[in-house]
Each structure stands twice: as C-alpha cells, then as structure tokens.
Design brief:
The complex is a heterodimer of chains A (about 130) and B (about 325). By secondary structure, chain A is of the alpha+beta class. Chain A has a single domain (about 5-95), classed as Ubiquitin-like (UB roll) (Roll). Helix content of chain A is about 15%, strand content about 20%. In chain A, the strands form 2 sheets. Chain A has a 3-stranded antiparallel sheet with strand order 4-3-5, covered by helices on one side. A two-stranded antiparallel sheet of chain A has the order 1-2. Chain A is elongated, with a radius of gyration of 22 Å. The model of chain A is unreliable at about 1-35 (pLDDT under 50). Chain B is about 70% helix and about 0% strand. Chain B starts with a helix and ends with a helix. Chain B has about 325 residues and is mostly helical. In chain B, about 35% of the residues are buried. Classes of the chains: A alpha+beta (about 130), B mainly alpha (about 325). The interface between A and B is large, with 40 and 42 residues.
C-alpha cells in the first residue's frame, strides 16, 4: 500500500516505487541487478560550448563507458551534443514532491528579493 | 467509507482537477493507480511498436536500390530503435522494469501496433510505410507531445522531431516510383492499395467503440479522439496521393463540401481485429524474430555485465 499524505490540498505523496535497481550483494562488492538487467544511467548533454549540460533521458548499460557509447548513439545522432555526462540513476538524490511546500513555498512571500519590490523614481536611469 | 478510501477519493478528485488545468505529472508525484496502469500499457505498447516496426523495413536494408536509399533507410530503422528506447525509459519511470516489458512483448501478453504485421514484398512498400505509416504515426504523436505525463510528452517531442524525415524519405520513394516506368508506377499503386486501409485503421476503433478513450481524454493522456485524428490523416494524405498521380483504393472517398473534409468508405474492422488477435500475415514471424534476437543477445548482455562487475571488483580490491 502506497503511503498517503496527511493533507490532500498540497501536492500529494510520491509513489513508493524506488527507481533503484542495483543492490549490493552480501558476499562481495559486486553490484547485482534484478534479473541481470543492466543498471540505469541518466544522460546529460551539452548541446554547444557555452551552455550547461541538460538532462536528455536515460538508458541501460553494463558500465559508465558503455553508457557513454550508447548515449552518443541514442541522443546525439543529429549533432545534438558536444559533451556527454552519464550518472548512475541510483547516485541521484532528489527532493520529494511531499516536501515541495516546505522547501519552495517560503520563497513565494519574499517579494523583497525581486527588483520590482523597490520604489525608485522613473527619471533616475540605470537602476 | 474508511479513512484510506476517503483519502484516495479526495486525491483522485484533486488529480482530475490538476490535469484538467493542463498541469504536468512527473514520476514521483502521486497519481491514481489506473492512470499509472493506463500509461504503462500505452507507453510500453508504443515502445514495442517501435521495436517490432524495425522488422518490415529492415527487410529491405540489404536490398535498397541505391546507396542513397540505403543510408536513409538504415538511419530511419536506427531511429526506430532509439524511439523504442526513449519510450521504454519513459515507462520505466512509472515503476515497471525493462525486463518486465520484454517479457510482456515476448509472451504475447502485450500488444504492438497491428500495422507491423503486414509484409513488405516490394521496394515500394518501403515508400508506402514511410509516407503512410509514419504519416499516421506523426498525426497520432503530435498531440501526445502535450500529454499530461511529463516523461511521455518529452519522449514524444524528441520522436516527432526525428520522424518528419521518415515521412519525407518515404514520400520521395513514392514520388520517384510513381513518376518512373509503367512497372514502377504499378508497384507504387500496388503498395498504396495494400497499405492504405491498414494505415487508416492505425488510429484504432471509432470513438463510440473505443474502450479507453473517454478516461484517457479526461486525464489528458489522449488529446484528440481516434476519429478526429483519422480525419486529419485522410485530409492530409488524399492531396499527397493526387500529387503522386495514384488512386486511393476507396471508391467511396469524396470531398464533403458541407463538412469541409473527405468522407471515406466503410472500414472493414473484421480485418483489424483478426490482426490484433494474432492472425495477421506476419504476427508469428515478427514475434519469433524478436524472440530469436533476444535469445541470441543473451550471452552478450551477460558477458558485458560480468565484465563490468569484474572491473568494479578489481578496482575495489586495488583500492583496499
């Protein structure tokens, strides 16, 4: 049974389905995947010099090197990339939709962090 | 009504209003079980279609008439593999594993688009597939770019960008054949005759007979009804056939001044259901081929994983 949130007005609870597919085996440090499935990697692409890497999608690969090779074939067939990052999906720590209001709502009331909050005369330039 | 049931009902109402407001759902957000199930079914079915869809065209890669055609066809088939991958990844965000989806396809539990159960006996079929099948797929996929589920919508945007080349390469083949020798034109017409009705049926049953349509529309998964999408495709394609100088295999096809659309003849749904139920011309061949590719690739997948694990183990040992 999925966990239900206390309040239904806010964005509700995440589905309790982990995206983790890798678990450490007890006998060794080898990483094992469910049913021998290759681990999942998230792919980030820099489309051109001067821009940041952006999430493009995900793919399975036996290791990071193969993930790069696959990402090159899957996500940059039409010159979409100049640089690729791959990150094991399990290495990403993310905020939960449950915490959305706690984390992000406080910013809504802090209008004084924006330039339009301050009154200055129109005739004064370069402000 | 107990506490939990009431929560689910309230959440469901909240969810319906949220998507109706054109807001997007992302993987970790709460969603009704049925929404998740519908998406898993639709996205995995869509992914399977891309993967199985490589077979009818792959059939002609080694026999493409020129190097130019071969390069184009090879690139197109490679795209289909990529589209399958984007879609499988989108489905995985809903909690289903790649292995589960592979099993679904190979066991015959999951469906894929029936259009790929028809054979490709001539080169003109490659033209007709690009023009009609990809044309219908694009018509279907453009509204899906606005689907309420973020990962599916993003996959569709990528797919649609790539797919316009597919349709153009197909139309170019048809154009060359239909303006070629009498024999070439006959081939083009023959391919149109065989692919037209299956392409028209790609949009699925009429809205009044479609089991999932209404709920999918309410959830903003589906944005345009089957019949409306079909009409868009017909209106667009009839003019393209005219330009080729080919005749649509439908004696009842005519412009309806009042509606501002083309009317088409009665669709033979018995043929559609026959193919859906597994008795089309190539159903068994397609699945057997996929199963063989899966089995033949098993040692490669295992070896790659064993190699990767060995390297991790070695690196860990050396560090110790």
């Amino acid at each position: 049974m999925r966990r239900l949130p206390m309040q239904t007005s806010a964005l509700p609870a995440p589905h309790a389905m982990p995206r983790e597919r890798i678990s450490k085996s007890k006998e060794s440090n080898e990483t094992m995947t469910d049913k021998n499935e290759w681990p999942l990697f998230e792919v980030f692409i820099r489309s051109k010099q001067g821009l940041a890497h952006q999430h493009a999608g995900s793919l399975h690969a036996a290791d990071a090197e193969m993930a790069i090779e696959n990402a090159r074939d899957v996500y940059t067939r039409r010159s979409e990339g100049q640089s690729i990052w791959v990150v094991p999906s399990t290495a990403i720590t993310a905020t939960s939709p449950d915490d959305k209001s706690v984390l992000f709502d406080p910013a809504d009331t802090k209008v004084y962090r924006h330039p339009t909050f301050y009154d200055v005369p129109d005739e004064v330039e370069c402000l | 009504m107990n506490e939990t049931t009431r929560d689910v009902v309230e959440l469901g109402q909240w969810f319906d209003a949220y998507v109706a407001d054109e807001k997007k759902i992302e993987p970790k957000d709460w969603m009704p079980d049925a929404y998740r199930k519908t998406l898993v079914r639709q996205i995995s079915q869509h992914a399977h279609s891309e993967v199985i869809g490589m077979q009818p065209e792959g059939n002609w890669i080694t026999r493409a008439p020129t190097l130019r055609r071969k390069a184009g066809l090879l690139a197109k088939v490679q795209d289909e593999a990529g589209h399958g991958l984007y879609l499988y990844s989108a489905a995985e965000t809903l909690g289903v594993s790649r292995g589960q989806m592979d099993d679904g396809l190979l066991s015959g539990k999951d469906k894929y688009s029936s259009i790929f159960n028809y054979p490709t006996p001539t080169w003109a079929d490659i033209g007709a597939i690009g023009w009609l099948v990809d044309g219908a797929a694009i018509t279907n996929q453009i509204p899906l770019c606005r689907c309420s589920y973020g990962p599916y919508a993003r996959a569709m945007i990528r797919v649609c960008k790539e797919e316009s080349f597919h349709q153009r390469q197909g139309y170019e083949i048809m154009l060359r054949l239909s303006h070629g020798t009498a024999e070439q034109k006959r081939m083009a017409q023959d391919a149109l005759n065989r692919w037209w009705w299956p392409a028209v049926m790609m949009f699925g049953p009429s809205d009044k007979d479609s089991a999932h349509s209404a709920q999918s529309m309410a959830w903003r998964i589906k944005r345009v009804s089957n019949d409306d999408l079909r009409q868009r495709f017909v209106d667009m394609t009839v003019k393209q056939a005219d330009y080729l100088g080919l005749t649509m295999p439908d004696p009842d096809l005519k412009w309806n001044e009042e509606r501002g659309h083309y009317d088409i003849g009665e669709i033979d749904w018995s043929d559609f259901w026959k193919v859906v139920k597994g008795n089309g011309p190539c159903n068994r061949q397609r699945l057997a081929h996929r199963q063989k590719a899966h089995d033949d690739g098993e040692w490669v997948r295992d070896a790659a994983l064993a190699h990767a694990n060995k390297r991790v183990a070695r690196a860990t040992r050396d560090a110790a």
